[in-house]
Specification:
Layout: E1 15-17, E2 20-22, E3 28-32, H1 38-57, E4 64-68, H2 72-78, H3 86-95, E5 97-100, H4 114-121, E6 126-132, E7 148-154, E8 164-165, H5 170-183, E9 201-202, H6 208-223, E10 231-236, H7 245-258, E11 264-266, H8 267-278, H9 284-291, H10 300-321, E12 330-336, H11 337-346, E13 353-356, H12 358-371, E14 381-383, E15 388-390, H13 409-422, H14 425-440, H15 446-449, H16 462-471
Helix pairs in contact: 1-13, 1-14, 1-16, 6-7, 8-9, 9-10, 11-12, 13-14, 14-16
The structure holds NADPH dihydro-nicotinamide-adenine-dinucleotide phosphate, 2-oxoglutaric acid and magnesium ion.
Magnesium ion (MG) is lined by residues 362, 366.
């Protein structure tokens, strides 16, 4: 049934029930080596994961790796332009959990992203990227240990749907003409705006369904965190993109305040409740004045809206959330996207789960990874209800390819996420311990070596870093 693949002869399939994996002791796990530095990173990662599983379970549990192809390797195996063969998607769908190295996407023309295609084909709607500090890791920040966030990025739509047209093409000009002559004039809020004929056009769809399933998963994740980290921040640029990014925020709050009503409190609700707790006789209007600093300069109509909000919150949740009960709930708030980039630097400890749309999450996960040690330490997972693919936040880092010097830490930590997702916590913990041991012993690759004080003169090779991690399992 595969054109060119032969699955391992030993091992069993991972299956899914209610969106959760059921993992046998000898699962078959497909892997994609990846382009560029994938040639260096993958062997180091596989070796580390296998060593941890062996050390944790002494042969009782073992991964049967199944090599599958995408990117340049797939073209070599399957022929020109066969970047993502059908075999590969079949294997991922059949075996449920996979792990991959980075894949190249050309800028401008050429093929669209294989990484994005894999997420869309397998409906891996949540891209989960924890950005957490490992003690001893050098960082350009003074207090990287204060940042402990998980970027929960919507993974299937937004501009990544890839519906766009090149400037000057017939269809692009036709679309601009329809917009300029028909659709924009029919929408009074757009006034006399016109799109220049020499523009390229991209479509940014943000759906209620995909926004809400992402936020739902983010809130469920928050419920599993320690109390102090039970926060979900909806990140958006809704002041500018009202019906896409603004809608994401509104739909997110809707999930929090309907499906998770008993578990969640929004930031504004917490202000209203807290105002009443401090002063039980506070009038609705004074409460409204306190939550909205510009209240007195609002129009009468807008003041009425804020008062209605206060009244509605007190009527509906005072019993369940008032008298400080809200302090035990998941705090759901929202931040404008540009602001969150400075907030994770200036107030890192105020954030936990950052629920984002696709593009914002892409930017934010690189920025947050840089704070805690760089892209060599940025793991990730793409999770759906029937399948999951683990991969690092970074790309192929082509200038380091084939030199055995890149940091394999991100793919190894993606392996840790995979082991945790499988319920193999003991093996995951060993790798985390090994990484901690290697870093605190200054046994690191070039990227961490150059940031250390004093700098490490002789950085380890990529393969040597894997060996160092394994050696420190026994610390
Ligand atoms: N999921 C995926 O497969 C992704 C694929 N890509 C693709 O990868 C290609 C290259 O993208 P590019 O913009 O260069 O971004 P990359 O993330 O590949 O690399 C940018 C820089 O980040 C640092 N870096 C990246 N990975 C590591 C690592 N493992 N260890 C240490 N440092 C690291 C290096 O900086 P320095 O040299 O300063 O040490 C590197 O030059 C593009 O085709 C892009 O589309 C991009 C992102 C994700
Ligand atoms: O697919 C790509 O080439 C880039 C994807 C990316 O940057 C990401 O997923 O973080
Ligand atoms: Mg990215």
């Amino acid at each position: 049934m595969y054109e060119k693949l032969t699955p391992p002869t030993t091992g069993d399939r991972v299956t899914f029930k209610n969106g959760e994996p059921i993992v046998p002791d000898n699962p078959i796990i497909p892997f994609i080596r990846g382009d560029g530095t994938g040639v260096d990173i993958w062997p180091a990662s596989q070796k580390t994961i296998d060593a941890a599983v062996e050390a944790a379970y002494g042969g009782k549990r073992k991964i049967s790796w199944f090599k599958i192809y995408a990117g340049d390797e797939a073209c070599e195996e399957y022929g020109t332009y066969q970047y993502l063969p059908e075999d590969t998607n079949k294997a991922i769908a059949e075996y449920g959990i996979a792990i991959k190295g980075p894949l190249t996407t050309p800028i401008g023309g050429g093929i669209r992203s294989l990484n994005v295609a894999l997420r869309q084909i397998h409906d891996l709607y949540a891209c989960v990227r924890p950005c957490k500090y490992y003690p001893g890791t050098p960082s350009p920040h003074k207090h990287p240990e204060q940042l402990d966030v998980i970027v929960y990025r919507e993974n299937t739509e937004d501009i990544y749907l890839g519906i766009e047209w090149r400037a000057g093409t017939e269809i692009c000009e036709k679309l601009i003409d329809i917009l300029n002559t028909q659709l924009i004039p029919q929408t009074p809020e757009h006034g006399k705006k016109q799109i220049r004929m020499d523009s390229g056009i991209g479509i940014k769809p943000i759906s209620k369904t995909n926004s809400q399933r992402l936020v739902r998963r983010a809130i469920k994740h928050a419920l599993r965190l320690p109390k102090a980290k039970q926060m979900v921040t909806l990140v958006h640029k809704g002041n500018i993109m009202k019906y896409t990014e603004g809608a994401f925020r509104d739909w997110g709050y809707e999930v929090a305040t309907t499906e998770f009503r008993n578990e969640c409190v929004t930031e504004r609700e917490s202000w209203i409740l807290s105002n009443k707790e401090k002063n039980p006789d506070l009038s609705i209007e004074d409460n409204a004045r306190q939550i909205d600093p510009g209240y007195d300069s609002l129009t009468e109509e807008k003041r009425a809206v804020v008062c209605e909000e206060v009244k509605q919150v007190l009527d509906s949740i005072w019993e369940t959330h008032g008298d400080r009960k809200w302090k035990e709930k998941i705090m759901v708030n929202d931040r404008i996207a540009d602001s969150i980039f400075q907030q994770i630097q200036t107030r890192p400890d105020e954030y936990s789960i950052l629920a984002t749309m696709n593009l914002n999450g892409d930017y934010l996960s690189d920025a947050a990874a840089a704070i805690v040690g760089g892209l060599g330490m940025g793991p990730g997972a793409n999770i759906g209800d029937q399948c999951a693919i683990f991969e690092a936040t970074h790309g192929t880092a082509p200038k380091h390819a084939g030199l055995d010097r890149i940091n394999p830490g991100s793919v190894i930590l993606s392996g840790v996420m995979m082991l945790e997702y499988m319920g193999w916590q003991e093996a995951a913990d060993l790798i985390k311990k090994g990484i901690g041991g290697a870093i605190s012993n200054r046994e690191v690759t070039y990227d961490l070596a150059r940031l250390m004080e004093p700098p490490v003169e002789q950085p380890l090779k990529c393969s040597e870093f894997a060996d160092a991690i394994i050696k420190h399992f026994d610390d």
